[in-house]
Amino acid sequence: MATHVILQHPITKETKAVKVGFSWVLFFFSFMSYGTPLFLRELHHLGAVVAGLMLLFAVGILSQPTVIDALTAILLCSPITFGIELWLGIKGNEMTVKNYLQKGWRFLEPDSVATKHARYKWGLPEISEQQVDSLETSAQRVKLPKTTPNLLNRDQ
Question: Using one digit for the tens of pLDDT, what is the confidence trace for 9-18?
Fold first, then answer.
């Protein structure tokens, strides 16, 4: 049975479940769909790289004068795409979770066995419920100005 961790956005309370382990979706569909699964996981930089490589490979293959040359180009591109697909399958879920955590998402159940396993596997530091609560209260103490001056309006 696959282990999943659930992330929650602190403001919108939206949740996302991410599997701990190999990502078959990224392995099979990252190159076939020009990086769409990466964009959906908000890994925009990797999605752009995959889309760019696919376009580059497509132009390179289609620009070959003969069928034999096109097949040779396909044989040269295949190991590269397979290697990147394998790497995305192995590291994709880890990169997804780290990306969401950097954007402020949190584990819904930080003390669960699945979350502890994921933290250990992905090299993330342990944070208890108590530490999360203290981070929230310290973040609430920071007061931001309600209005910012309009820098474009010179009449002020």
Answer: 999 999 999 9
Rounded average pLDDT over 19-24: 94
**Number of C-beta neighbours around residue 88 at 10 A:** 25
Contact of 60 with 77, CB cutoff 8 Å: yes
Report the run of H or E that residue 73 belongs to, with start and end: helix 67-102
Rounded Cα distance, 37 and 83, in Å: 17
pTM: 0.74
CA-to-CA separations, 54 to 8, 77, 80, in angstroms, rounded: 33, 10, 11
E strand intervals along the chain: 3-8, 15-20, 106-107
- Residue 112 CA neighbour count, 13 Å, CB half: 12
Give the model confidence (pLDDT) of 104-124 as tens digits.
999 999 989 999 999 999 998
Q: Would you tell me how many other CB atoms lie within 10 Å of the CB of residue 91?
A: 16
Say how many C-beta atoms besides its own lie within 10 A of residue 48's C-beta.
14
